[in-house]
Amino acid sequence: TVEPLEYYRRFLKENCRPDGRELGEFRTTTVNIGSITTADGSALVKLGNTTVICGVKAELAAPAADSANKGYIVPNVELPSLCAERFRSGPPGEEAQAASQFIADVIENSQMIVKEDLCIANGKLAWVLYCDIICLDYDGNLLDASVFALLAALKNVQLPLVTINEETGLSEVNLKQKNPLLIRKHPVATSFAVFDDTLLIVDPTAEEEDLATGTVTIVTDEEGRLCSVHKPGGSPLTGAKLQDCITRAITRHKEVKKLIDKVIKSITPK
Amino acid sequence: MAAVMAVESGQSRLRPFSCELGLLSRPDGRATFLQGVTPSVLAGLYGPVEAKISKELPDRAALEVLLRPKVGLPGVLERSREQLLRQTCEAVVLGALHPRTAITLVLQVLSDASLLSCCLNAACMALLDAGLPLAALFCGVTCALQPDGSVLLDPTARQEQEARAILTFAIGSSERKVLMATTKGSCSVEEMQQCLAAAQGAADTIFQFYRDSVRRRYCKS
Amino acid sequence: MPLDHRRLCGPEESQPPALWAAIAAEDEEDEECVGAAPRDPCALRPLFARAGLLSQAQGSAYVELGSGTKVLCAAWGPREAAEPGPGRLLCEFRRAPFAGHERGPAAPRPNGRREPAVRLGRLPAARLAVSALLLQDGGSALAAAISAAALALADAGVEMYDLAVGCALCRPPRPPPHGCCSRPSQSAAPPPAHLALLPALNQVSAVLGGGRGGPPEDWAQALRLGLDGCHRQYPVLRQSLLRATQRRDAQAEPA
Predict the structure, then answer these.
(1) Which residues of C touch A130 (CB under 8 A)?
(2) How far apart are alpha carbons B44 and B33 in whole angstroms?
(3) pTM, whole model, 2 decimals?
(4) CB neighbour list of residue C63: distance below 8 Å, 6 or more residues apart
(5) With contacts defined as CB-CB under 8 Å, which chain C residues touch B74?
(6) Per-residue pLDDT for chain A (270 aa), expressed as one digit of tens each?
(7) Does C96 contact A132 at a Cβ distance shorter than 8 Å?
């Protein structure tokens, strides 16, 4: 299209988008759990064309000196050159780093995993969960897909049983006996793009993100509490508009929770 | 030129803050923002100057924000804050008036507790000081939700640690709309709206302070 | 290793849990091997290939060997290159941190630049980019990546002499015959030989060998096995390319 913005405005005036969606409609969301067998937990999430894979690797380490009863969660988002033409190969760029920080904040704010749960022996041994989130196909709304992939992958994690031998003081790992992680909260992200400073559209594609004047991401948990309100600059919004976003985010949470419960149920053989 | 003022708003007080414009001599725009007693953030703005070909944008000025921590090298946290600050500034700078130029804003954190709101205020004052055409002003306000549910404006580092949630907003001067929002910890929807209202209330005092300090700067000469 | 400022960092040192369960792990691996061992050393693992699945890339392909090795590949081009000269093909091969049994170094290591299996002198001063990502390493990752890259380039509509097919060989611990093709080699050394073939022209485009040397007959036999493996994979790759084109046509028609 020669005038993409004008093209979009025509659609938005009629309350729909070029791909046939309504303004408040998400793209088809699919999730595939446990597809990477080398990881301790993994999930592939597709949001329309946007594809994100999250693999969790669990390792053992000594807890940090100032928090002896805590384990570690290390989330990192990668946008390799594979996922879109504009990303260069090499170390993560600004967008990937901002996304990593956002994911780390979501984990911390929502307390989806309490770091104390990851501690095996106080001051001696704790789990480190390396959560690597890689975008395979970038068609907008990276944050929603990443948060969803992270949640689904963590739900899939099975940690081997670790005991500390009283006599030798060494740890013993029983790879045959595995336990799932305790997920205390289920945060779900919902992103919006702001068009022409006023119109809010949900789940923007890459093209919509480029044309939009700002984005907002709301993360809620199952109790309807806000885990994150992330508005990185862009068009100013009134408090009422933010409230609209939050209301939509709470309904989205229910949809996603239903989907993830269904998928988890389908892979547990009982 | 220093200006100090103590402000009181509806629910709680903002700490006295002050700023100094024109402390550095080289940059086109400069500001030091102090919250409490110690200097917090030093800002220097360069531009609009000719942009590097790889960075130039055909329809507007390319804005770059560099955030330097007090010690060490900038990491992931700084990078994500740079993004927040840059996109907030982009929303107010009338960049279309200076196409194919570059504007660089450097923020040096001086205190241990680097409040994002301090950075925002310093950034806006630097933009003002440089005389760049702006669509609106913005200010940063931090609110802390205390364990008992009350809202505390502009918490100290210790209060921040005790708080249940910390919300930082950038409020624009036109209609007091929200330019930027970021949260730490979880809160209910009502609590968020409460904090937002408190922040919007405090914004007026900060804008008044902006006006006063700029006026004083130009009175002297 | 210097501290990486562009990633969130964990503790300075951490070990995979399997390290602490050395005895138990070996037992388990033995069991696994017993389950998987009956594979004929010359048999190929089932190959699954799909082309044209990424929306943002001009060409893309996904190759899966058995259910162990998964490689995704995207291709772009041709674009104008900054420097004049003959056309160039830039390759990148990354490994997801969770691809191996042990977590790789925090930075996915570029696994060496793959020699362009296919290239063309038709496009002067142009640049083609191929980038492959290894999602899960179950052995023969390089071979899978070669096939995927060729498929992605073809899917991008780049003129090529032929579709390159990769095949990896490894020598089992017992001396006599060369075990063939895409044997999962996670516990053993990496496959000491890789072979890329242009089947339609019947030309070998790349041979990469390593490990301890062997008598020439062994190498000759290995090459034959590898060539055979490549020829057998070729139809599957062609099929997937055909299917991708058909899908695209079907999508284009109603519009």
Answers:
(1) 10, 97-98, 103
(2) 11
(3) 0.91
(4) C47, C48, C49, C69, C70, C71, C73, C144, C145, C147, C148, C151
(5) 5
(6) 788 899 999 999 999 999 999 999 999 999 999 889 889 999 999 999 999 999 999 999 999 888 889 999 999 999 998 888 888 888 899 999 999 999 999 999 999 999 999 998 888 889 999 999 999 999 999 999 999 999 999 999 999 988 888 777 778 888 888 889 999 999 999 999 998 888 899 999 999 999 999 999 999 999 989 999 999 988 999 999 999 999 999 999 999 999 999 998 888 764
(7) yes
Residue recorded with tokens 């991008």: C156
Q: Please, which residues have CB within 8 angstroms of residue A100's CB and are 6 or more apart in sequence?
A: A75, A76, A77, A92, B76, B80, C7, C8
How long a stretch of residues is chain A? 270
Listed by number, the residues of chain A in 188-247 with a beta carbon closer than 8 Å to a beta carbon of chain B are 213-214, 216, 221, 224-239, 242-243, 246
- Could C6 and B79 be called an inter-chain contact, meaning their C-beta atoms sit closer than 8 Å? yes
Question: In sequence order, which ranges of A115-238 are alpha helices (DSSP H)?
Answer: 142-156, 206-211
CB A217 within 8 A of CB A224: no
Give which of A72, A74, A82, A89 to mutate to test C binding, by max C Cβ within 10 Å. A82
d(CA A47, CA C225): 43
Chain B to chain C, count of Cβ pairs less than 8 Å apart? 9
B125 touching A (Cβ < 8 Å) = no
